[in-house]
């Protein structure tokens, strides 16, 4: 039996030791990859964006492959995919999510279920903040499509902030129904992937007049339909229309619909009134922030599932420190465990846990952002971030500042006014001036060009 998560964590430990991967590159490109599944001798890794996938393929694939085969000699290659490609795995029934994926080494057969096996009701910690959503989800799974007494659970609309368990609940419903009602046809789709599929169908209609009809049919001929993260419907009026019709057909024939979103239907911008009222027609169940007791329970559950343990002190420290969401809490626990392994300290104490959270990179948005660029520039020119963002006009500081401004303008598409704010509240004309000055100097200043290239390679862009 091979545990995908273990393989990837071990590969990350190897990658940390690689001299060719500096700390900036590690935190921007490597740490954000997540393992999806294994296909023959290839490990499939998910990158957070297309740009990130391309960079990893171009600059890190061979090092990752080398480290991977150190950890698992039978695995020789990696394939870096994006979220869009992930949806093809889902459609092909070929998708197996990371974490718990267990590949039977003898048959090499992958599970055909599109649901993440560890996302079950049993693995879900129930507390004040999520009990309505939990019991509603369970009830829908037990009796899909039928109203529960006087309570109308169709559609079930679960909403709440990121990392609070919405996808976990949807997959739990999927796992439960697949097991107890194997004849029912269930479709689960993240709304972003649904939108891609919809636009692809529209594009195809000129050459294939059935493309749109096939798209609608795929979702109309099901017993249970789940769309995850429907806030992505905003501004997609055509898709909203299509969903409205799918919705009516399913509803009229008593099929179950389950939706999730990061906000209640009314707060999804530009959602059509008629669709909004369909979304609100059943039960709206919110998931709130977990309290301290629940955070402790989540860590304990996670330790049990991952077969790892830390002391009560560390559990308490993590539960108190990470009060944002459950995904970050789980991530923090894994960081502590990984770090403890790295420094050969199998029983981490609170000091080690603090250290682990300090040394590991903060959770970042997709790809690089302005602070990555500023940090890399400061590291390169050995000046402090405070100085770079200050009003100081000393030559080395102001030169470094101009380089950072130039790189932010060049690499990110942020309005100039906002760049001004990022650089200590400067006017946008100052930003234009700095950017153009560097652009002009680059035409003849070879040394500056090399410096900027060095910073780019620290950022791997
Ligand atoms: P969302 O879809 O709301 O952004 P997820 O369902 O992806 O959040 O949850 C993020 C992580 O937190 C997952 O690994 C999930 O298993 C875990 N998680 C969330 N809520 C709970 C809970 N109540 N009990 C156990 N694990 C949870
Ligand atoms: Mg989710």
Q: Can you walk through the features of this model?
A:
This protein is of the alpha/beta class. It folds into 4 domains: 4-107, DnaA, N-terminal domain (GMP Synthetase, Chain A, domain 3, 2-Layer Sandwich); 131-287, 3-Layer(aba) Sandwich (Rossmann fold), CATH 3.40.50; 292-356, Orthogonal Bundle (Helicase, Ruva Protein, domain 3), CATH 1.10.8.60; 365-459, Chromosomal Replication Initiator Protein Dnaa, Chain: A. Helix content is 54%, strand content 10%. It has helices at 4-16, 23-30, 50-71, 83-91, 131-142, 166-180, 191-204, 211-220, 237-252, 273-279, 292-306, 312-321, 326-342, 350-359, 370-381, 385-389, 395-411, 416-422, 428-444, 446-459, and strands at 2-3, 34-39, 42-46, 77-81, 102-103, 156-160, 186-190, 224-228, 256-261, 283-287. Strand 8, helix 9 and strand 9 (256-261) form a beta-alpha-beta unit. It is globular and about 75 Å long. The two termini are 38 Å apart. The model is unreliable at 88-111 and 361-366 (pLDDT under 50). The protein binds adenosine-5'-diphosphate (ADP) and magnesium ion. Magnesium ion is lined by residues 166-167, 228-229.
**What's the CATH topology label of the largest domain?**
Rossmann fold
Count of DSSP H/I helices = 20
How much of the sequence is in beta strands? 5-15%
- On the 0 to 100 scale, the average pLDDT is 86
> How would you write the strand order of the largest sheet?
7-8-9-6-10
Q: Architecture of the largest domain, according to CATH?
A: 3-Layer(aba) Sandwich
User: How many structural units, i.e. domains?
Assistant: 4
Number of strands: 10
What would you report as the Rg, rounded to the nearest angstrom?
25 Å
Q: Which structural class matches the secondary elements? A: alpha/beta
Largest β sheet strand count, sense and barrel closure: 5 strands, parallel
CATH H-level homologous superfamily name of the largest domain: P-loop containing nucleotide triphosphate hydrolases
> What is the string of helix and strand elements?
EHHEEHEHEHEHEHHEHEHEHHHHHHHHHH
Cα distance, first to last residue?
38 Å
Low-confidence segments, given as residue ranges, are: 88-111, 361-366
Share of helix, binned: 40-55%
CATH class of the largest domain: Alpha Beta
Bound molecules: adenosine-5'-diphosphate, magnesium ion
Shape: globular
């Amino acid at each position: 039996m091979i545990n995908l998560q273990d393989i990837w964590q071990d590969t990350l430990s190897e990658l940390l030791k690689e001299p060719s991967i500096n700390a900036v590159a590690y935190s921007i490109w490597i740490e954000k990859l997540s393992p999806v599944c294994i296909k023959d001798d290839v490990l499939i890794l998910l990158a957070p964006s297309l740009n990130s996938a391309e960079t990893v393929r171009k600059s890190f694939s061979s090092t990752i492959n080398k480290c991977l085969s150190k950890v698992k000699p039978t695995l020789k290659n990696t394939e870096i995919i994006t979220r869009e490609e992930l949806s093809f795995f889902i459609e092909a029934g070929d998708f197996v999510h990371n974490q718990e994926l267990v590949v039977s080494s003898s048959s090499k057969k992958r599970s055909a279920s599109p649901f993440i096996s560890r996302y079950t009701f049993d693995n879900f910690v129930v507390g004040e903040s999520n009990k309505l959503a939990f019991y509603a989800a369970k009830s829908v799974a037990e009796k899909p499509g039928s109203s529960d007494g006087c309570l109308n659970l169709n559609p079930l609309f679960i909403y709440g902030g990121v990392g609070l368990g919405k996808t976990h609940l949807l997959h739990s419903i999927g796992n439960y129904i697949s097991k107890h009602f194997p004849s029912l046809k269930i479709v689960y789709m993240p709304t972003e992937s649904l939108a891609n599929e919809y636009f692809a169908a529209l594009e195809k209609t000129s050459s294939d007049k059935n493309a749109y009809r096939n798209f609608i049919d795929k979702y109309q001929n099901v017993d249970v339909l789940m769309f995850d993260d429907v806030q992505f419907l905003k501004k997609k009026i055509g898709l909203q229309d299509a969903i409205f019709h799918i919705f009516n057909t399913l509803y009229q024939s008593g099929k179950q619909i389950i939706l999730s979103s990061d906000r209640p239907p009314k707060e999804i911008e530009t959602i059509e009134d008629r669709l909004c009222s369909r979304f609100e027609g059943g039960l709206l169940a919110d998931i709130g922030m977990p309290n301290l007791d629940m955070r402790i329970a989540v860590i304990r559950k996670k330790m049990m599932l991952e077969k790892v343990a830390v002391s009560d002190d560390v559990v308490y420290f993590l539960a108190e420190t990470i009060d944002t969401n459950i995904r970050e809490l789980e991530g923090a626990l894994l960081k502590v465990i990984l770090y403890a392994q790295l420094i050969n300290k199998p029983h981490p104490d609170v000091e080690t846990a603090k250290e682990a959270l300090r040394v590991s990179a903060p959770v970042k948005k997709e790809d690089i952002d302005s602070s990555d660029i500023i940090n890399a520039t400061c590291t390169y020119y050995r000046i402090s971030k405070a100085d770079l963002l200050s009003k100081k006009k000393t030559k080395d500081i102001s030169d470094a500042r101009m380089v950072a401004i130039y790189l932010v303008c060049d690499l990110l598409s942020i309005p100039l006014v906002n760049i001004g704010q990022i650089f200590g509240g400067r006017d946008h004309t100052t930003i234009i001036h700095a950017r153009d000055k560097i652009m002009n100097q680059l035409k003849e200043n070879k040394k500056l060009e090399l410096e900027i290239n060095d910073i780019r390679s620290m950022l791997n862009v």
